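User: For a teaching handout, I'd like to show students what a predicted protein-ligand complex looks like in token form. I'll give you the sequence and the SMILES for nicotinamide-adenine-dinucleotide. Please answer with just the structure.
Assistant: Understood, here is the input followed by the structure.
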Amino acid sequence: MSGIDNYSRRDWVAEVGSQSAMPILRMTERLEAFRENFGANLQFQRGNITDYDTVANMLRHHQPDAIVHLAEMPSAPYSMIDAQHAVYTHQNNLMGTLNLLFAMRDITPDAHLLKLGTMGEYGTPNVDIPEGFFEIEFRGRKDTLPFPRQPGSFYHLTKVHDSANIMFACRMWGLRSTDIMQGVVFGTRIDAMGDDERLVTRLDFDQAFGTAINRFCAQAAIGLPITPYGKGAQTRGFLPLRDSIQCFTLALETPPEEGEYRVFNQFEETYVISELAEMVREVADRLGLNPEVRHLENPRKEMEEHYFNPDHSKLLELGYEPTHDIKTEIEAVLKDLIKNKSRIEARSESLLPDIRWDGTRRKSDYR
Ligand SMILES: NC(=O)c1ccc[n+]([C@@H]2O[C@H](COP(=O)([O-])OP(=O)(O)OC[C@H]3O[C@@H](n4cnc5c(N)ncnc54)[C@H](O)[C@@H]3O)[C@@H](O)[C@H]2O)c1
């Protein structure tokens, strides 16, 4: 088992004026903790997958049966800052995935590519969302076609382009891939970590890299108001980190056929953002934090009230057992964040958004 990362996440978060709320140890210490807990050596290399030779050498050396590809710039606001950030996001995400597809074709054509896409690829159409494909009848003829994608940021567009590239590579070269349309992830732990603090994952709370529940918990932990954007009636699929890892495992245990490109919608349940804010408030109250919920002017351009009904049965059919206890997950996050309160307080400015979809930089006012 081996991994590669160029540590760019740390640089992006520093660039937007923040840091992980959870302190992250040096990689050598984390690898040692992994060896002690799981009795296996995880090899790791610092490298950039936008360099073709780096990717090809890695596949040649390790000859993997499966490749889990997470290595992309994952922030919608970061990709919307200006032309340079949009171009960087496209270069980083599309080049890395293309390099991987070509290297797989030439070196490990039988490997299973498990690639992270996002539920954000679909946008919020006024009809149900299937898992990747739908049957359509048009002017008397029928076909099964990719469901239309209507993403809401240049980051999400990179995922759409990746999906098209991967589907093409499966069709042309017989590669096999699972494209995971993942909902918004939150949480700090998975069961396998036990209570070894050296293995905890980072948790970002800034306007660009903090996802909704993580950011709400960070606000509650330091006594700031919890701030849904706009009306807060946006609906999205969410899942705890532990569910995300459970789903990856299931997908890897049941690889697709040669030439198959399959799409899984991966989330525990859909939630309305303002209801999540209330849930965080309720759990925070129980822990004696008593935060208020205050809506902020929305820095994004998005529908604030809309229909949203995506399918998510394929992973359930493979045996996915959703956590379904989101408040317990929120409590665990809050407890972790309370322990690291000073790290959030030191960068609390980064919680309030000023990256706007219209290109201006202005802090949002309370509504
Ligand atoms: N977190 C979420 O809510 C969420 C939701 C849907 C999809 N996703 C997708 O899941 C994946 C992981 O997301 P995350 O939130 O854990 O992000 P992350 O930033 O923590 O993980 C991505 C990792 O890839 C590395 N990386 C980026 N570009 C690289 C390159 N060119 N070469 C080598 N390493 C590189 C980064 O340093 C980082 O450690 C991403 O592809 C993201 O788009 C995340």
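For the handout, you might add this sentence: The first helix runs from residue 8 to 15.
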